[in-house]
Amino acid sequence: MVAEFAERLDLSRAGYTFAVVTMAGMGVSALHQLNGIFKEQQNRALDAAFAVSMPGNFPPLSRPPAGEKRDKILLAADERLDEIAEAISQGRAVPPGFAPISPLMKALTYGPFTKQVHGAGENFSVSDACTGCGTCARVCPAGNITLADGRPVWNHRCELCCACLHFCPVEAIQLHVLRGTEGRGRYRHPDLAIADMEAQRGE
Ligand SMILES: Cc1cc2nc3c(=O)[nH]c(=O)nc-3n(C[C@H](O)[C@H](O)[C@H](O)COP(=O)(O)O)c2cc1C
Ligand code: SF4
Ligand code: SF4
Q1: Euclidean distance between CA atoms 147 and 44, whole angstroms
Q2: Are 31 and 97 in contact (CB under 8 A)?
Q3: Integer Cα distance of 140 and 162 in angstroms
Q4: Which numbered atom of ligand 2 lies nearest the CA of 137?
Q5: H or E segment at 143?
Q6: SS3 content of the chain, % helix, strand, coil (to 5)
Q7: SS3 145
């Protein structure tokens, strides 16, 4: 979804270009990928590229940090954002960092991930705890969820962002890949409201 967005941007008249990605630990390859898209599409590299560490939000792989651990990461992210804002306001050149493991991981996993991601809805299930509130459909950035008889149905344009999983107020949604999500915690940024998610949806 982000790659498609980047491909549609027109940077021909931009004076200074920058990108900021959030990550759980390896975001450098995403910055290189964005840089590659801009170079290829518009013969224009990013002037500055930044990554911000956030709490992990993919419970099938690792439990999202909670409590003090989560708050510490969020505080550090705020400080990092202040640094980034300062660099941007000064028009500083910041090339994407060098992290040899990150491109290797991308080379191994990104192709298979993008190939099957739109069908990832097949791996979600919903329990009887579902109240039919519709929050999952409201927050889905891909418009991938419809409600049938008050229950979510996942269609075929999933991006595996996990917003439905994390925003369900009664944890009725589970994702059945790797270690699964049952009892493995949930994470959403404390400042992020359902209305914010709805406002940034593409249609
Ligand atoms: C499907 C999926 C793929 C992800 N891939 C990566 C990744 O390649 N590298 C990484 O560092 N974090 C990855 N993450 C983690 C998120 O980038 C990170 O946890 C996120 O920025 C959480 O904070 P935020 O929603 O408040 O920005 C992934 C998360 C999901 C749901
Ligand atoms: S957010 Fe949860 S409770 Fe609400 S409709 Fe979706 S699955 Fe059901
Ligand atoms: S919210 Fe994200 S994970 Fe859930 S259906 Fe929509 S795109 Fe897929």
Answers
A1: 43
A2: yes
A3: 9
A4: 6
A5: none
A6: 40, 15, 45
A7: strand
CATH of domain 116-199: 3.30.70.20
Full-model pTM:
0.93
Domain-wise residue ranges, the chain: 2-99, 116-199
Give the number of other CB atoms < 10 A from CB of residue 133.
Answer: 16
Tell me, using a 6 A CB cutoff, whether residue 133 lines ligand 2.
Answer: yes
pLDDT tens for residues 137-183? 999 999 999 999 999 999 999 999 999 999 999 999 999 999 999 99
25 in Cβ contact with 57 (< 8 Å):
no
Beta carbons within 10 angstroms of residue 50's beta carbon: 22
C-beta of 114 in contact with ligand 1 (< 6 A): no
Which atom of ligand 1 lies closest to the CA of 22? 21
**d(Cα 152, Cα 48) in Å, to the nearest integer?**
40
Ligand 1 pocket residue status of 189, Cβ below 6 Å: yes
Q: Which runs of consecutive H residues, i.e. helices, occur in the chain?
A: 2-8, 28-42, 67-89, 101-116, 135-139, 163-167, 194-199
Q: Report the alpha-carbon distance of residue 99 to residue 122 in Å, rounded.
A: 34
